[in-house]
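Weekly sync, protein design subgroup
Attendees: M.S., D.O., the rotation student, P.L. (late)

Item 1: inverse folding check
M.S. brought a backbone from last month's batch and wanted to see whether the design step gives back something sensible before we order anything. D.O. pointed out we never logged the input encoding, so this time it goes straight into the notes. Structure tokens as presented (148 positions):
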């Protein structure tokens, strides 16, 4: 079988909640073209949505004058997604949430997005922008060869 040529798709979203759905649909379309199983496509959609919501809310602080960039790069057996915002980036990753406390209302139910992203994809990396902006999260999801 011939190796697939690397391809790249870019989407620019307004910093307005709801537009993460455009990135979800685009990521799903690319993943389906690559041959990902439906359950992995759903994992990817959720991870991309969470990353975009974080970029809109925390990176760009809902400033509609700023946009969120989503770059999908596919090559052979993996899809890499970068969600880029104009925020300063994280100083440190937050601690793993206590899911029991969140479920029982003892902690704010929010704040699980980054944990969820890490659980859904094969690699997740948060990169702080060197210029005080243009931070991004890099997600990688691999094709499962055995399940094909």
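Designed sequence read out in the meeting:
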């Amino acid at each position: 079988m011939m190796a697939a040529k690397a391809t790249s798709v870019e989407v620019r979203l307004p910093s307005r909640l709801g537009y993460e759905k455009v990135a979800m649909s685009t990521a799903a379309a690319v993943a389906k073209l690559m041959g990902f199983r439906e359950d992995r496509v759903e994992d990817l959609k959720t991870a991309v949505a969470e990353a975009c919501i974080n970029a809109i809310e925390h990176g760009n602080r809902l400033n509609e004058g700023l946009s969120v960039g989503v770059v999908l790069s596919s090559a052979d057996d993996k899809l890499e997604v970068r969600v880029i915002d104009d925020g300063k980036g994280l100083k440190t990753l937050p601690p793993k949430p206590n899911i029991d406390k969140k479920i029982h209302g003892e902690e704010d139910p929010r704040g699980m997005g980054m944990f969820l992203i890490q659980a859904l994809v094969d690699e997740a990396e948060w990169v702080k922008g060197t210029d005080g902006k243009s931070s991004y999260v890099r997600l990688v999801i691999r094709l499962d060869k055995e399940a094909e």
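Discussion: DSSP finds four helices and five strands in the chain. The longest helix spans residues 38-59.
Action: P.L. to compare against the previous round before Friday.
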